């Protein structure tokens, strides 16, 4: 193996690049693929869940644009892939502004490259556990106006915050600064889907804890609903990933909706 190959092999896996691999992307290294393969040994459904999560995110963004939202703060945005938030939002409303935030340097670098000629969207490196630093980032304050409604997107990221107190506090801090008329979008790993699998779930958590710098935890319906606090969930509420916004929509999870693996919901701040 050449030197560059050795360096790549030594890199720990990251949640962002593992997700990219589940989605069939090319921005991942051997360590990411090995870790993701270990996860898929336990839960072969992960790539299907990842695709379903992307589709939920797309539907939620379209809904927000329809509701008049023109500013998006997407935290834990991941490596760009099909159906990026700015593409969906700006197709429907070209004046939409988007700030992507991720801890992963590859996610941020790839996003910035993609957005080179897009003056209404940017990406910054930031940690959901440090909301103030995100909100004060000069590229964010240049693009987003917190006197106008904002769509805060937390898609498939909250399960990487395993400390409950910290997770609720950080989301609370972000929601506090949102003006009225803003929306919060959440999808997050469902304990109901993974808890019954006991050992398998622990094996997946161990892969993330041992091979990435990110911890992992799933939460049940009520625990995830708590993130919305006083916000008003729009219909149909917090439902299985594929059931938002239409609980009757047919999908690959029809036999057992809990196989979609995530709870998903959208709420408005009145
Ligand atoms: C599963 S991906 C989800 C990507 C995208 N939001 C989606 O739904 O398709 C989770 C992303 O969250 C990022 N992430 C994990 N912990 C984070 C944190 N504390 N702050 C910001 N991003 C984080 C990871 O780097 C990864 O890119």
UniProtKB/TrEMBL annotation:
Which Pfam family, any one, appears in the UniProt record? Methyltransf_19
Region of interest (Disordered), residue spans: 248-270
**Signal peptide (UniProt feature, chain positions):** none
Domain of life according to the entry: Bacteria
**InterPro entries per UniProt:** SAM-dependent_MTases_sf, SAM_dep_MeTrfase_SAV2177_type
Protein name, please?
A: S-adenosyl methyltransferase
